[in-house]
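Action item from last week, closing it out:
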Amino acid sequence: MLRITRRSGQSVELDERAVVAGKVIPREPARRRGIPSAGARELQEVAARGWPAPETERLGEWLLRAARDVPGPDARPETFTSRANSCLPVGDPGLPQPAALDGVERWYGARGLTPLVQVATGADGSGELLAAELEARGWAAEQHTGMYVGALAPLADREPDDRVRLSRTPDAGWLSAYGRGRRAPEAARQVLTGGPSVWFATLPGADPQQPAAIGRCVIDGRWAGFAAVKVAPEHRRTGLATAVMGELARTALEEGASAAYLQVETDNTAALALYDRLGFAPHHAYHYRRAPGS
């Protein structure tokens, strides 16, 4: 039997006798005009800096990340997002891959955390082989996500919206709209406010403590990373997400950025439709692999 790892990270088995020919498929689709060019490693590293875990350690070039609040000796830590609590396996771990994965398991186990690995697929230097190794170890695939890129200037090419308020820190209303309550765990605050240059956008609703829309943007050199773009259910499909992103994009342009990126889970069809209309294009995919027994 042959084991083939698809670009989505899913592994399938084929009867060797059924294979009569094969060919190399180009990794990168044709880019839309104006879409920024970037390698997968560049984007993964920029995204990691834009969503920084409070606790990190290097395993060779791989990045081990943890964002946790420890409530007590007998309780499991409260974690904030898979992105900030997973290994980013970019580059050379300095060990054979099986030994490196053993090290990942030990590092997260010592912290009472589920070992997770973020695996990029469908791009240059991507992790189809790593996905196959993890599949063979019984690590389950979850949270399939796309990395999308787009030109920044078109997002800001609209009349300024003075309803949108920008700040350097999230207030209680922003945190509530994000879904973390008005008193977010410390690990969440550290991740949200971390990064080279972070801005939070709030578009107030009728109740000042309940925003109609929010968003976050982190500027890192030429890149502006958008995240946490949320609109209250009663205000959806009224252009508020575009307004929030427009004001954040305007600020990012003023700081010298020219390209935008964001990450969307593949089953979030509403967000995918919005970002397609705003000119974003898929760059590569990634998903998480969870260690068995956790």
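Closing note: The first strand starts at residue 2 and ends at 5.
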